[in-house]
Amino acid sequence: MIRGSTELVAIVGSPIAQVKSPENFNTWFANNACDLAMIPIDLQETALGAFVENLRGWRNLRGCVVTVPYKQVLATRLDGLSERAKALGSVNVIRREPDGRLLGDNVDGAGFLGAARLQGFVASGKRALVVGCGGVGSAIAYALGEAGLGQITLSDPSAERVGALGEVLGKAFAELEIATQYRSLEDFDLVVNASPVGMGNNGELPLPSTLLETLKTTTLVADVVTSPEITPLLHQARERGCAIQTGVQMAFAQLGHLGAFMGVTPLEI
Ligand code: NAD
């Protein structure tokens, strides 16, 4: 029940009907008897400037989760950014301070790592392949760098995106070895699909089948795609005997990070 006293958080993007955060947060708020609610906002791009001004003045709003396509543009309009959000040039969560200032962070990578830790994955000194160097791939790569990964291989059809991410990582993590070429998957401890390939039911793989045959069974194979939960990549990896991590697990592991940044849940939920 939303009452006059209820404090709000929001999630903004466009489209918005597919997002799972409102049901996840509202279930948690109800189960923990919190007078809090999350509302979804499908925002037209032309309203972005007015929206940011409204957030500043919206006194019973604690914060706002940000999803596609506003993660990058909103990072340029806030009053302060975490170091990682600044480096990535994107935010997926905003906190409204009591004085109306808006601060941003990006916890996509923290969510990914949280889920990977639950699988027993320790990044320190390991080797990873990140397929897809857009918003989410960059956040995952940055979080792996923060966690002390030894070597990262970046792959994306856009050479510009690979170059831009390589530059961000090179600046932030002097010890991290960065590569862009690979012939086999056998040297990787972690293979992540951070591209939308595999979404829907078209059976597409982000890596050729022949290459997937070089996976070792000790490699953790992860996907960011949430629907289907078991993507063709994860299906094939599981058949080979690899541990797998789904996009749904990554999204769920983010909840505490999003809620804690907005000040509405503990980090561990
Ligand atoms: P984006 O458009 O910023 O980046 C996608 C990248 O994938 C692009 O750089 C594109 O060139 C690359 N790509 C496309 N085809 C490729 C291929 N065959 N091989 C390698 N790279 C390829 O999108 P994004 O915001 O990074 O989102 C990517 C996916 O992550 C989406 O499907 C989104 O739904 C999902 N996502 C999942 C979570 C989660 O918690 N599970 C969170 C956010 C986003």
Q: Would you write up a description of this structure?
A:
- The protein is of the alpha/beta class and 269 residues long.
- The chain has two domains: 7-106, 3-Layer(aba) Sandwich (Rossmann fold), CATH 3.40.50.10860; 109-249, NAD(P)-binding Rossmann-like Domain (Rossmann fold).
- 36% of the residues lie in helices and 20% in strands.
- The chain has helices at residues 21-31, 48-57, 71-75, 83-88, 108-118, 135-146, 159-172, 209-212, 232-239, 247-262; strands at 7-13, 36-42, 61-66, 80-81, 93-96, 102-105, 127-131, 151-155, 177-179, 190-193, 220-223, 243-245.
- The strands form two sheets. It has a six-stranded mixed β-sheet.
- The model has no long low-confidence stretch (mean pLDDT 97).
Q: How many structurally independent domains?
A: 2
Query: What is the overall pLDDT average?
Result: 97
CA-based shape = globular
Structural class by helix and strand composition: alpha/beta
CATH architectural type of the largest domain: 3-Layer(aba) Sandwich
Give the percentage of residues in beta strands.
15-25%
Low-confidence stretches: none
Largest sheet: 6 strands, mixed
Bound molecules: nicotinamide-adenine-dinucleotide
Q: Strand arrangement, largest sheet?
A: 2-1-3-5-6-4
Q: Might you state the CATH topology name of the largest domain?
A: Rossmann fold
The count of β-strands is 12
How many individual helices? 10
State the share of residues found in helices, binned by percent: 25-40%
Pattern of helices and strands: EHEHEHEHEEHEHEHEEHEHEH
